[in-house]
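Subject: Predicted fold for HTH CENPB-type domain-containing protein, 317 residues

User T.R. writes:
Posting the sequence so we have a shared reference for the thread.
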Amino acid sequence: MYGLTKTEILSLAYTLAEKNKIKHPFSSKREKAGIEWLKGFRKRHPDITLRAPESTSAARARAFNKPVVDKFFSILKDTQAKHSFPPYRIFNVDETSLCTVPTKNTKVFAQTGRKQVARVTSAERGDTTTAVVCGSATGNFIPPMFIAYFLQAMPRNYIRKTTRQNWSETSMQSALDAVKDGMAFKTASRQFSVPLMALKRRTKGKNKLAMGAVKVLGSKQTVFTTEQEAELVKHIKDMEIRMYGLTKTEILSLAYQLAEKNKIKHPFSSKREKAGIEWLKGFRKRHPDITLRAPESTSAARARAFNKPVVDKFFRF
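User M.O. replies:
I've generated the structure tokens; pasting them so everyone works from the same file.
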């Protein structure tokens, strides 16, 4: 697994000729054989060819060798002789990597003299997805499995198949008033088009909206009120102005602490003591005036010296 490149073969041919004191037309300045010699050499030896090698880890190279492979097939042969597995129960599994951005660019035609030719892709650096394919000896295949790089922030582009929470808060309040006036739960649920179980929970005082919290048709209610979120946004902006911008993790922890301190019912993780990534997505959508940026490192001395009063004084001079 240490294949020689064209350049290495040309250098090797020159070294071989020099060491054996063979008269040759090779370049003494470059210390390499010529490309014409390589063409003739390949024609005389068609059993060698130029290939693009596949990157293989050292651990895999050590494990994947003839003795190990022979041992595997020996065990497989004994196991098959012992159990006589039918072909439809013998499966072969393999994996391959797929990249969202091509790793190799095919040459394209462009204007002569242009210094740089660009090509639009989904991104400059792609994300690798692993595809696992499995088939039996009889030709039956199970659906392929794709292993994406997502761990917590899975894409939310699926289509909802249910009508869960597809009701307005006004309809729920009307149904609650009707139940208090003596209407049956089922009748109120049908008449005002609200879920029966949700209506019963609301009657018992469960799942109440926080005063001032927002509930949009077909979406989840917000945890905090409009005023509370405005205070949180103000704090985030103030910290950024002071050059102590909050990270995603810090904001998630801050949201959890805010809910706990104000005794607000929330779906956040008590174990991790953080709000969820879905809450953060909704929070950012509701407040497009804040965004996620990569900060530039600034020394404390420069931060103290470079401020509005100092800059204003400079321009007055």
